[in-house]
Fold this protein.
Amino acid sequence: MKRFLAMVLTLAMLLSLAACGSDSNTETTSAAGNSTAGETNAAGETSSVDTSDIYGGVAVQEGGTFVIGATGDPQSFNPDYLSDDYLWPIAQNMFNRLVKLTTDDTVIPDLAESWEFSDDGLTLTFHLREGVKWHDGVDFTSADVKWTYDTIIAESWNRSSSLESVESIECPDDNTVVFHLKSADITIIPKLGWYGLFILPQHLYEGQDPATCEAATTNPVGTGPFKFESYETGVGVTLVKNEDFWGDEPNPDELIFAIYTDQDTLYQAFLNGEVDVMGTSLPSANVGELDNDDNYRVFTQLAQNRTYITFNFDDPDFSKVEVRRAVELAVDRQGIFDRVGGAGAVAEYYVSPLQTDYLDENYKIPDRNVEEARALLESAGYTADADGYYIHTTMDVFESGNFANIAQIVKANLAEAGIDITINMMEMSAWTEKVQQNKNFSVSMLAGYQGPDISGLAGRIQSDGATNIGGYSNERIDELFALSNVETDITQRAAYYSEIQQIMSEEVPMVFLLDNGGQYAFPSNVLGSPYDLPELAASSEYTYLAFAAE
Protein backbone atom coordinates (compact mmCIF):
# COMPACT_ATOMS: atom_id res chain seq x y z
CA MET A 1 0.00 0.00 0.00
CA LYS A 2 2.96 2.34 0.51
CA ARG A 3 3.69 1.79 -3.17
CA PHE A 4 0.09 2.76 -3.99
CA LEU A 5 0.36 5.97 -1.98
CA ALA A 6 3.70 6.75 -3.59
CA MET A 7 2.08 6.32 -6.98
CA VAL A 8 -0.76 8.65 -6.02
CA LEU A 9 1.88 11.21 -5.09
CA THR A 10 3.83 10.74 -8.32
CA LEU A 11 0.74 10.91 -10.50
CA ALA A 12 -0.50 13.92 -8.57
CA MET A 13 2.75 15.71 -9.31
CA LEU A 14 2.47 14.83 -12.97
CA LEU A 15 -1.11 16.04 -13.13
CA SER A 16 -0.58 19.00 -10.77
CA LEU A 17 -3.46 17.81 -8.65
CA ALA A 18 -4.15 20.24 -5.84
CA ALA A 19 -5.90 18.64 -2.89
CA CYS A 20 -6.25 21.88 -0.97
CA GLY A 21 -7.80 22.84 2.32
CA SER A 22 -9.11 26.40 2.42
CA ASP A 23 -8.89 27.00 6.16
CA SER A 24 -5.37 27.89 7.30
CA ASN A 25 -6.19 26.64 10.80
CA THR A 26 -7.32 23.20 9.68
CA GLU A 27 -5.25 20.07 9.36
CA THR A 28 -5.79 18.60 5.90
CA THR A 29 -4.54 15.35 4.50
CA SER A 30 -3.56 15.21 0.86
CA ALA A 31 -4.14 12.31 -1.53
CA ALA A 32 -0.57 11.28 -0.82
CA GLY A 33 -1.32 10.92 2.87
CA ASN A 34 0.69 13.95 3.98
CA SER A 35 -0.86 15.92 6.85
CA THR A 36 0.02 19.60 6.82
CA ALA A 37 -1.42 22.86 8.06
CA GLY A 38 -2.88 25.36 5.64
CA GLU A 39 -3.39 24.85 1.91
CA THR A 40 -1.48 21.84 0.65
CA ASN A 41 -1.30 20.30 -2.78
CA ALA A 42 -1.22 16.55 -3.40
CA ALA A 43 2.55 16.56 -3.07
CA GLY A 44 2.22 17.98 0.44
CA GLU A 45 3.62 21.37 -0.62
CA THR A 46 2.19 24.59 0.80
CA SER A 47 0.42 26.61 -1.87
CA SER A 48 -1.96 29.53 -1.97
CA VAL A 49 -3.72 31.70 -4.53
CA ASP A 50 -3.71 35.44 -3.93
CA THR A 51 -6.99 36.89 -5.17
CA SER A 52 -6.35 40.37 -3.79
CA ASP A 53 -4.96 41.66 -7.09
CA ILE A 54 -6.12 39.23 -9.76
CA TYR A 55 -6.20 41.91 -12.46
CA GLY A 56 -2.51 42.77 -12.24
CA GLY A 57 -3.05 46.20 -10.77
CA VAL A 58 -5.41 47.32 -13.54
CA ALA A 59 -8.54 49.10 -12.31
CA VAL A 60 -11.72 47.42 -13.50
CA GLN A 61 -15.37 48.34 -13.81
CA GLU A 62 -17.61 46.61 -11.34
CA GLY A 63 -20.46 44.59 -12.77
CA GLY A 64 -21.65 44.96 -16.32
CA THR A 65 -23.01 42.62 -19.00
CA PHE A 66 -20.76 40.35 -21.01
CA VAL A 67 -21.99 38.87 -24.29
CA ILE A 68 -20.34 35.53 -24.98
CA GLY A 69 -20.57 33.66 -28.25
CA ALA A 70 -22.17 30.20 -28.34
CA THR A 71 -22.29 27.97 -31.40
CA GLY A 72 -25.59 26.18 -30.81
CA ASP A 73 -28.60 25.61 -28.59
CA PRO A 74 -28.19 23.39 -25.53
CA GLN A 75 -30.11 20.12 -25.80
CA SER A 76 -31.25 20.49 -22.19
CA PHE A 77 -30.05 22.11 -18.96
CA ASN A 78 -29.18 18.83 -17.26
CA PRO A 79 -25.36 18.94 -17.54
CA ASP A 80 -24.88 15.24 -16.72
CA TYR A 81 -27.52 13.43 -18.75
CA LEU A 82 -26.11 13.80 -22.29
CA SER A 83 -22.88 14.83 -23.96
CA ASP A 84 -23.69 18.41 -24.95
CA ASP A 85 -20.91 20.75 -26.05
CA TYR A 86 -23.37 23.63 -26.41
CA LEU A 87 -24.40 23.43 -22.77
CA TRP A 88 -20.85 22.98 -21.49
CA PRO A 89 -19.75 26.67 -21.22
CA ILE A 90 -23.12 27.63 -19.74
CA ALA A 91 -23.08 24.77 -17.26
CA GLN A 92 -19.62 25.65 -15.98
CA ASN A 93 -21.00 28.98 -14.79
CA MET A 94 -24.20 27.57 -13.22
CA PHE A 95 -23.07 24.32 -11.61
CA ASN A 96 -20.20 22.95 -9.54
CA ARG A 97 -18.40 19.62 -9.19
CA LEU A 98 -16.48 18.24 -6.24
CA VAL A 99 -13.29 19.32 -8.00
CA LYS A 100 -12.71 21.10 -11.30
CA LEU A 101 -10.07 21.40 -14.02
CA THR A 102 -8.39 24.66 -14.96
CA THR A 103 -7.31 25.53 -18.50
CA ASP A 104 -3.97 23.79 -17.91
CA ASP A 105 -5.62 20.60 -16.54
CA THR A 106 -4.77 21.31 -12.92
CA VAL A 107 -7.31 19.85 -10.49
CA ILE A 108 -8.46 22.39 -7.89
CA PRO A 109 -11.15 22.27 -5.19
CA ASP A 110 -14.73 23.12 -6.04
CA LEU A 111 -17.54 21.95 -3.72
CA ALA A 112 -15.02 19.76 -1.93
CA GLU A 113 -12.42 21.81 -0.09
CA SER A 114 -10.22 18.82 0.81
CA TRP A 115 -10.05 15.05 0.43
CA GLU A 116 -7.96 12.05 1.41
CA PHE A 117 -7.50 8.36 0.61
CA SER A 118 -7.37 5.66 3.26
CA ASP A 119 -4.10 3.77 3.70
CA ASP A 120 -5.31 0.90 1.53
CA GLY A 121 -6.53 3.25 -1.22
CA LEU A 122 -10.05 1.81 -1.10
CA THR A 123 -11.77 4.67 0.73
CA LEU A 124 -11.84 8.25 -0.53
CA THR A 125 -13.28 10.91 1.77
CA PHE A 126 -14.33 14.39 0.63
CA HIS A 127 -14.90 17.29 3.02
CA LEU A 128 -17.47 19.68 1.56
CA ARG A 129 -17.69 23.43 1.88
CA GLU A 130 -20.17 24.63 4.47
CA GLY A 131 -22.86 27.22 3.87
CA VAL A 132 -23.39 26.42 0.18
CA LYS A 133 -26.93 26.97 -1.10
CA TRP A 134 -28.72 26.04 -4.29
CA HIS A 135 -29.93 28.94 -6.39
CA ASP A 136 -33.46 28.43 -4.99
CA GLY A 137 -32.20 28.92 -1.42
CA VAL A 138 -32.23 25.26 -0.36
CA ASP A 139 -29.12 24.06 1.50
CA PHE A 140 -26.64 21.98 -0.47
CA THR A 141 -25.57 18.83 1.41
CA SER A 142 -23.66 15.61 0.93
CA ALA A 143 -26.98 13.92 0.06
CA ASP A 144 -27.00 15.84 -3.24
CA VAL A 145 -23.56 14.44 -4.08
CA LYS A 146 -24.56 10.89 -3.27
CA TRP A 147 -27.84 11.13 -5.19
CA THR A 148 -26.12 12.62 -8.26
CA TYR A 149 -23.40 9.98 -8.49
CA ASP A 150 -25.69 7.08 -7.56
CA THR A 151 -28.06 8.16 -10.33
CA ILE A 152 -25.30 8.60 -12.92
CA ILE A 153 -24.13 5.05 -12.16
CA ALA A 154 -27.55 3.42 -11.94
CA GLU A 155 -28.95 5.10 -15.05
CA SER A 156 -25.70 4.86 -17.10
CA TRP A 157 -25.66 8.57 -17.82
CA ASN A 158 -23.04 10.13 -20.05
CA ARG A 159 -19.95 9.85 -17.81
CA SER A 160 -20.90 6.81 -15.74
CA SER A 161 -17.64 5.17 -16.84
CA SER A 162 -15.72 7.75 -14.80
CA LEU A 163 -17.30 6.23 -11.69
CA GLU A 164 -16.80 2.56 -12.58
CA SER A 165 -14.46 2.00 -9.62
CA VAL A 166 -17.08 3.19 -7.11
CA GLU A 167 -18.67 0.40 -5.06
CA SER A 168 -20.85 2.60 -2.85
CA ILE A 169 -21.16 6.12 -1.44
CA GLU A 170 -22.15 7.13 2.08
CA CYS A 171 -22.75 10.42 3.86
CA PRO A 172 -21.78 10.30 7.56
CA ASP A 173 -22.91 13.93 7.87
CA ASP A 174 -24.10 16.81 5.70
CA ASN A 175 -20.55 17.94 4.87
CA THR A 176 -18.77 14.62 4.31
CA VAL A 177 -18.95 12.18 1.39
CA VAL A 178 -17.19 8.81 1.52
CA PHE A 179 -16.50 6.77 -1.62
CA HIS A 180 -15.92 3.05 -1.12
CA LEU A 181 -13.97 1.79 -4.13
CA LYS A 182 -14.00 -1.68 -5.69
CA SER A 183 -10.25 -1.36 -6.19
CA ALA A 184 -7.65 1.35 -5.78
CA ASP A 185 -8.08 3.92 -8.55
CA ILE A 186 -5.41 6.55 -9.11
CA THR A 187 -7.48 8.21 -11.85
CA ILE A 188 -10.68 9.02 -9.99
CA ILE A 189 -9.80 12.50 -8.71
CA PRO A 190 -9.07 14.05 -12.14
CA LYS A 191 -12.07 12.22 -13.62
CA LEU A 192 -14.36 13.87 -11.06
CA GLY A 193 -13.27 17.25 -12.40
CA TRP A 194 -14.23 16.33 -15.94
CA TYR A 195 -17.30 16.33 -18.14
CA GLY A 196 -20.76 15.28 -16.99
CA LEU A 197 -20.11 15.10 -13.23
CA PHE A 198 -21.72 18.31 -12.00
CA ILE A 199 -23.65 17.98 -8.75
CA LEU A 200 -27.43 18.23 -9.23
CA PRO A 201 -30.16 19.24 -6.73
CA GLN A 202 -31.75 16.05 -5.46
CA HIS A 203 -34.86 17.90 -4.29
CA LEU A 204 -35.66 19.00 -7.86
CA TYR A 205 -34.65 15.88 -9.81
CA GLU A 206 -35.57 12.90 -7.67
CA GLY A 207 -38.56 11.08 -9.12
CA GLN A 208 -38.59 13.31 -12.22
CA ASP A 209 -37.69 12.67 -15.85
CA PRO A 210 -34.03 13.84 -16.05
CA ALA A 211 -34.51 15.13 -19.60
CA THR A 212 -37.90 16.82 -19.44
CA CYS A 213 -38.41 17.94 -15.83
CA GLU A 214 -38.54 21.64 -15.00
CA ALA A 215 -34.95 21.65 -13.66
CA ALA A 216 -33.70 20.28 -16.99
CA THR A 217 -35.72 22.56 -19.25
CA THR A 218 -37.16 25.83 -17.97
CA ASN A 219 -35.74 26.36 -14.49
CA PRO A 220 -32.25 24.88 -13.98
CA VAL A 221 -30.84 25.34 -10.49
CA GLY A 222 -27.19 25.01 -9.53
CA THR A 223 -24.73 26.21 -6.89
CA GLY A 224 -22.46 28.14 -9.25
CA PRO A 225 -21.52 31.82 -9.55
CA PHE A 226 -24.34 32.60 -12.00
CA LYS A 227 -28.06 31.78 -11.97
CA PHE A 228 -30.37 30.98 -14.87
CA GLU A 229 -32.50 33.91 -16.03
CA SER A 230 -33.91 33.06 -19.48
CA TYR A 231 -33.46 31.10 -22.69
CA GLU A 232 -34.78 31.72 -26.21
CA THR A 233 -34.18 29.03 -28.82
CA GLY A 234 -31.79 30.18 -31.51
CA VAL A 235 -31.13 33.46 -29.70
CA GLY A 236 -29.35 32.82 -26.43
CA VAL A 237 -29.20 32.07 -22.73
CA THR A 238 -29.00 34.75 -20.03
CA LEU A 239 -27.42 34.16 -16.61
CA VAL A 240 -27.29 36.65 -13.73
CA LYS A 241 -24.92 36.99 -10.80
CA ASN A 242 -25.58 34.69 -7.85
CA GLU A 243 -25.47 37.17 -4.98
CA ASP A 244 -25.26 34.29 -2.49
CA PHE A 245 -22.39 32.47 -4.20
CA TRP A 246 -20.16 30.67 -1.69
CA GLY A 247 -16.89 31.54 -3.47
CA ASP A 248 -15.28 34.75 -4.68
CA GLU A 249 -18.00 37.18 -5.68
CA PRO A 250 -18.51 37.14 -9.46
CA ASN A 251 -17.70 40.45 -11.09
CA PRO A 252 -20.17 40.52 -14.02
CA ASP A 253 -23.82 41.23 -13.25
CA GLU A 254 -24.96 39.31 -16.30
CA LEU A 255 -23.68 36.81 -18.87
CA ILE A 256 -25.49 36.48 -22.19
CA PHE A 257 -24.57 33.44 -24.31
CA ALA A 258 -25.56 34.62 -27.80
CA ILE A 259 -26.06 31.83 -30.32
CA TYR A 260 -24.25 31.99 -33.67
CA THR A 261 -24.45 28.66 -35.49
CA ASP A 262 -21.75 29.69 -37.98
CA GLN A 263 -18.27 30.18 -36.52
CA ASP A 264 -17.24 32.68 -39.21
CA THR A 265 -20.31 34.79 -38.46
CA LEU A 266 -19.45 34.62 -34.75
CA TYR A 267 -15.90 35.80 -35.50
CA GLN A 268 -17.20 38.80 -37.44
CA ALA A 269 -19.60 39.59 -34.60
CA PHE A 270 -16.60 39.53 -32.25
CA LEU A 271 -14.58 41.88 -34.47
CA ASN A 272 -17.60 44.20 -34.73
CA GLY A 273 -18.02 44.30 -30.95
CA GLU A 274 -21.40 42.53 -31.00
CA VAL A 275 -19.98 39.92 -28.62
CA ASP A 276 -17.39 40.70 -25.96
CA VAL A 277 -15.95 37.16 -25.81
CA MET A 278 -16.06 34.59 -28.60
CA GLY A 279 -16.57 31.70 -26.21
CA THR A 280 -14.61 29.46 -28.56
CA SER A 281 -11.28 29.48 -30.37
CA LEU A 282 -10.68 31.59 -33.46
CA PRO A 283 -11.66 29.90 -36.74
CA SER A 284 -8.71 27.99 -38.19
CA ALA A 285 -8.53 30.28 -41.21
CA ASN A 286 -8.13 33.31 -38.94
CA VAL A 287 -5.42 31.98 -36.62
CA GLY A 288 -2.64 34.57 -36.41
CA GLU A 289 -4.69 37.52 -37.69
CA LEU A 290 -4.85 39.24 -34.30
CA ASP A 291 -1.36 38.36 -33.03
CA ASN A 292 0.05 41.85 -33.57
CA ASP A 293 -3.13 43.83 -33.02
CA ASP A 294 -2.95 45.91 -29.82
CA ASN A 295 -6.73 45.85 -29.58
CA TYR A 296 -6.63 42.17 -28.59
CA ARG A 297 -4.79 39.75 -26.33
CA VAL A 298 -4.31 36.31 -27.83
CA PHE A 299 -3.62 33.01 -26.05
CA THR A 300 -2.42 29.96 -28.05
CA GLN A 301 -2.74 26.47 -26.64
CA LEU A 302 -2.32 22.91 -27.94
CA ALA A 303 -4.94 20.82 -26.17
CA GLN A 304 -5.43 17.17 -25.30
CA ASN A 305 -8.20 17.27 -27.86
CA ARG A 306 -8.26 15.19 -31.04
CA THR A 307 -10.39 14.97 -34.18
CA TYR A 308 -10.95 11.49 -35.58
CA ILE A 309 -13.10 9.28 -37.79
CA THR A 310 -15.04 6.58 -35.97
CA PHE A 311 -16.79 3.47 -37.26
CA ASN A 312 -19.81 1.34 -36.46
CA PHE A 313 -18.34 -2.09 -35.71
CA ASP A 314 -21.67 -3.73 -36.55
CA ASP A 315 -21.42 -2.43 -40.11
CA PRO A 316 -20.50 -5.27 -42.52
CA ASP A 317 -17.84 -3.14 -44.20
CA PHE A 318 -16.22 -1.30 -41.29
CA SER A 319 -16.18 -4.33 -39.04
CA LYS A 320 -13.30 -5.49 -41.29
CA VAL A 321 -9.89 -4.31 -40.12
CA GLU A 322 -8.67 -4.11 -43.73
CA VAL A 323 -11.32 -1.49 -44.48
CA ARG A 324 -10.48 0.58 -41.41
CA ARG A 325 -6.77 0.41 -42.23
CA ALA A 326 -7.57 1.44 -45.81
CA VAL A 327 -9.35 4.54 -44.49
CA GLU A 328 -6.35 5.34 -42.29
CA LEU A 329 -3.99 5.05 -45.27
CA ALA A 330 -6.26 7.03 -47.60
CA VAL A 331 -6.81 10.18 -45.55
CA ASP A 332 -4.42 13.06 -46.15
CA ARG A 333 -3.79 14.24 -42.60
CA GLN A 334 -1.27 16.86 -43.70
CA GLY A 335 -3.70 18.21 -46.28
CA ILE A 336 -6.44 18.40 -43.66
CA PHE A 337 -4.13 20.27 -41.28
CA ASP A 338 -3.04 22.68 -44.02
CA ARG A 339 -6.68 23.53 -44.70
CA VAL A 340 -8.20 23.64 -41.23
CA GLY A 341 -5.52 22.79 -38.64
CA GLY A 342 -5.03 26.31 -37.36
CA ALA A 343 -3.19 26.28 -34.02
CA GLY A 344 -3.21 22.48 -33.81
CA ALA A 345 -0.96 19.79 -35.27
CA VAL A 346 -1.10 16.80 -37.60
CA ALA A 347 -2.03 13.66 -35.65
CA GLU A 348 1.01 11.38 -35.66
CA TYR A 349 0.38 8.96 -32.80
CA TYR A 350 -2.40 6.91 -31.23
CA VAL A 351 -2.41 9.02 -28.05
CA SER A 352 -2.11 12.76 -27.57
CA PRO A 353 1.47 14.05 -27.99
CA LEU A 354 1.01 15.90 -24.69
CA GLN A 355 1.02 12.53 -22.89
CA THR A 356 4.81 12.44 -22.99
CA ASP A 357 5.15 9.87 -20.19
CA TYR A 358 3.02 7.36 -22.04
CA LEU A 359 3.41 8.02 -25.77
CA ASP A 360 5.27 5.18 -27.53
CA GLU A 361 6.97 6.47 -30.67
CA ASN A 362 7.22 2.92 -32.02
CA TYR A 363 3.54 3.18 -32.97
CA LYS A 364 3.17 6.05 -35.39
CA ILE A 365 0.20 6.53 -37.69
CA PRO A 366 1.36 5.43 -41.18
CA ASP A 367 1.93 7.93 -43.98
CA ARG A 368 -0.67 8.26 -46.70
CA ASN A 369 -0.54 5.48 -49.29
CA VAL A 370 -3.56 5.31 -51.61
CA GLU A 371 -2.30 2.31 -53.57
CA GLU A 372 -1.81 0.29 -50.41
CA ALA A 373 -5.31 1.28 -49.29
CA ARG A 374 -6.80 -0.05 -52.53
CA ALA A 375 -4.75 -3.25 -52.23
CA LEU A 376 -6.11 -3.80 -48.71
CA LEU A 377 -9.69 -3.51 -49.96
CA GLU A 378 -9.02 -6.03 -52.69
CA SER A 379 -7.36 -8.40 -50.20
CA ALA A 380 -10.59 -8.20 -48.16
CA GLY A 381 -12.54 -9.47 -51.17
CA TYR A 382 -13.83 -6.20 -52.64
CA THR A 383 -14.03 -5.60 -56.39
CA ALA A 384 -14.22 -2.13 -57.88
CA ASP A 385 -17.40 -1.23 -59.78
CA ALA A 386 -17.53 0.58 -63.11
CA ASP A 387 -16.84 3.88 -61.35
CA GLY A 388 -13.81 2.51 -59.53
CA TYR A 389 -15.50 2.23 -56.12
CA TYR A 390 -15.25 -0.76 -53.81
CA ILE A 391 -17.58 0.60 -51.12
CA HIS A 392 -20.46 3.09 -51.10
CA THR A 393 -21.39 4.45 -47.67
CA THR A 394 -22.61 7.50 -45.73
CA MET A 395 -20.75 9.54 -43.13
CA ASP A 396 -23.06 11.20 -40.57
CA VAL A 397 -21.51 14.39 -39.19
CA PHE A 398 -22.98 17.09 -36.96
CA GLU A 399 -22.49 20.76 -37.69
CA SER A 400 -19.63 21.91 -35.51
CA GLY A 401 -16.48 23.97 -36.04
CA ASN A 402 -14.45 22.68 -38.97
CA PHE A 403 -16.29 19.34 -39.35
CA ALA A 404 -17.94 20.33 -42.66
CA ASN A 405 -14.62 21.27 -44.26
CA ILE A 406 -12.85 18.17 -42.92
CA ALA A 407 -15.67 15.94 -44.17
CA GLN A 408 -15.29 17.27 -47.70
CA ILE A 409 -11.55 16.62 -47.67
CA VAL A 410 -12.08 13.10 -46.30
CA LYS A 411 -14.68 12.45 -49.02
CA ALA A 412 -12.17 13.43 -51.72
CA ASN A 413 -9.35 11.44 -50.09
CA LEU A 414 -11.37 8.25 -49.77
CA ALA A 415 -12.69 8.53 -53.33
CA GLU A 416 -9.10 8.13 -54.53
CA ALA A 417 -8.90 4.85 -52.62
CA GLY A 418 -12.21 3.56 -53.98
CA ILE A 419 -14.52 4.41 -51.07
CA ASP A 420 -17.50 6.56 -52.05
CA ILE A 421 -18.69 8.71 -49.15
CA THR A 422 -21.99 10.57 -49.05
CA ILE A 423 -21.86 13.24 -46.34
CA ASN A 424 -24.94 13.69 -44.17
CA MET A 425 -24.56 16.96 -42.24
CA MET A 426 -26.90 17.10 -39.25
CA GLU A 427 -27.83 19.28 -36.31
CA MET A 428 -26.20 17.98 -33.15
CA SER A 429 -29.48 16.91 -31.54
CA ALA A 430 -30.40 14.84 -34.61
CA TRP A 431 -26.91 13.34 -34.73
CA THR A 432 -27.09 12.47 -31.02
CA GLU A 433 -30.32 10.54 -31.54
CA LYS A 434 -29.31 8.80 -34.79
CA VAL A 435 -25.66 8.05 -34.15
CA GLN A 436 -24.90 8.18 -30.44
CA GLN A 437 -28.15 6.77 -29.08
CA ASN A 438 -29.50 4.52 -31.86
CA LYS A 439 -26.16 3.49 -33.42
CA ASN A 440 -27.76 3.97 -36.84
CA PHE A 441 -24.64 4.88 -38.81
CA SER A 442 -21.65 3.47 -40.68
CA VAL A 443 -19.02 6.20 -40.34
CA SER A 444 -18.96 9.39 -38.31
CA MET A 445 -16.53 11.97 -37.02
CA LEU A 446 -15.83 13.16 -33.50
CA ALA A 447 -13.50 15.50 -31.68
CA GLY A 448 -12.97 16.08 -28.03
CA TYR A 449 -10.89 16.41 -24.94
CA GLN A 450 -9.01 13.22 -24.15
CA GLY A 451 -9.09 13.68 -20.40
CA PRO A 452 -6.83 15.08 -17.68
CA ASP A 453 -5.08 11.72 -17.43
CA ILE A 454 -4.07 9.19 -20.09
CA SER A 455 -6.89 6.96 -18.81
CA GLY A 456 -9.34 9.33 -20.52
CA LEU A 457 -8.63 7.33 -23.67
CA ALA A 458 -10.70 4.50 -22.18
CA GLY A 459 -13.89 6.47 -22.72
CA ARG A 460 -13.36 6.17 -26.46
CA ILE A 461 -12.12 2.59 -26.94
CA GLN A 462 -12.97 0.62 -23.80
CA SER A 463 -15.91 -1.72 -24.40
CA ASP A 464 -18.29 0.31 -22.22
CA GLY A 465 -16.66 3.69 -22.84
CA ALA A 466 -19.05 6.64 -22.78
CA THR A 467 -17.79 7.96 -26.15
CA ASN A 468 -17.21 4.57 -27.76
CA ILE A 469 -20.19 5.12 -30.04
CA GLY A 470 -19.15 2.48 -32.57
CA GLY A 471 -19.04 -0.47 -30.20
CA TYR A 472 -15.35 -1.35 -30.58
CA SER A 473 -14.41 -4.06 -28.10
CA ASN A 474 -11.14 -5.78 -27.28
CA GLU A 475 -10.85 -7.83 -24.08
CA ARG A 476 -7.11 -7.25 -23.78
CA ILE A 477 -7.52 -3.47 -24.03
CA ASP A 478 -10.20 -3.59 -21.33
CA GLU A 479 -7.82 -5.62 -19.15
CA LEU A 480 -4.94 -3.20 -19.76
CA PHE A 481 -7.04 -0.20 -18.73
CA ALA A 482 -8.06 -1.99 -15.54
CA LEU A 483 -4.45 -2.89 -14.73
CA SER A 484 -3.18 0.63 -15.43
CA ASN A 485 -5.76 2.25 -13.15
CA VAL A 486 -4.30 0.51 -10.09
CA GLU A 487 -0.68 0.25 -11.19
CA THR A 488 1.75 1.83 -8.72
CA ASP A 489 4.78 2.01 -10.97
CA ILE A 490 4.98 4.64 -13.72
CA THR A 491 7.21 2.50 -15.91
CA GLN A 492 4.82 -0.45 -15.76
CA ARG A 493 1.84 1.82 -16.35
CA ALA A 494 3.57 3.15 -19.46
CA ALA A 495 4.13 -0.44 -20.60
CA TYR A 496 0.41 -1.12 -20.38
CA TYR A 497 -0.30 1.95 -22.50
CA SER A 498 2.40 0.93 -24.96
CA GLU A 499 0.51 -2.33 -25.54
CA ILE A 500 -2.74 -0.41 -25.92
CA GLN A 501 -1.11 1.72 -28.62
CA GLN A 502 0.22 -1.40 -30.33
CA ILE A 503 -3.28 -2.91 -30.48
CA MET A 504 -4.72 0.38 -31.74
CA SER A 505 -2.14 0.46 -34.53
CA GLU A 506 -3.11 -3.08 -35.53
CA GLU A 507 -6.90 -2.84 -35.20
CA VAL A 508 -7.50 0.86 -36.00
CA PRO A 509 -10.56 1.46 -33.80
CA MET A 510 -10.57 5.06 -35.05
CA VAL A 511 -8.60 7.15 -37.54
CA PHE A 512 -6.96 10.19 -35.96
CA LEU A 513 -6.74 13.32 -38.10
CA LEU A 514 -5.76 16.30 -35.96
CA ASP A 515 -4.41 17.21 -32.55
CA ASN A 516 -6.47 20.27 -31.89
CA GLY A 517 -5.21 23.54 -30.56
CA GLY A 518 -6.72 26.94 -30.37
CA GLN A 519 -6.12 30.64 -30.32
CA TYR A 520 -8.37 32.46 -27.88
CA ALA A 521 -8.69 36.21 -28.35
CA PHE A 522 -10.03 38.80 -25.93
CA PRO A 523 -10.40 42.54 -26.44
CA SER A 524 -7.58 44.35 -24.65
CA ASN A 525 -10.09 45.95 -22.25
CA VAL A 526 -11.44 42.56 -21.10
CA LEU A 527 -9.57 41.03 -18.17
CA GLY A 528 -9.93 38.01 -15.92
CA SER A 529 -10.60 35.37 -18.58
CA PRO A 530 -9.87 31.73 -17.76
CA TYR A 531 -6.68 32.08 -19.81
CA ASP A 532 -5.60 35.09 -17.74
CA LEU A 533 -6.20 33.13 -14.53
CA PRO A 534 -5.59 29.44 -15.27
CA GLU A 535 -4.88 28.75 -11.59
CA LEU A 536 -8.38 29.93 -10.59
CA ALA A 537 -10.95 29.28 -13.28
CA ALA A 538 -12.27 26.34 -15.25
CA SER A 539 -11.98 26.74 -19.01
CA SER A 540 -15.44 28.29 -19.48
CA GLU A 541 -16.00 29.89 -16.08
CA TYR A 542 -16.31 33.68 -16.19
CA THR A 543 -16.44 34.56 -12.49
CA TYR A 544 -13.53 36.99 -12.76
CA LEU A 545 -14.34 38.49 -16.16
CA ALA A 546 -14.18 42.30 -16.04
CA PHE A 547 -13.97 45.36 -18.27
CA ALA A 548 -10.96 47.56 -17.60
CA ALA A 549 -11.95 50.92 -16.18
CA GLU A 550 -11.90 53.70 -18.74
Notes: The CA atoms of residues 82 and 158 lie 5 Å apart. The longest helix spans residues 490-507. Residues 302-517 form a domain with the Dipeptide-binding Protein; domain 3 fold (CATH 3.10.105.10).
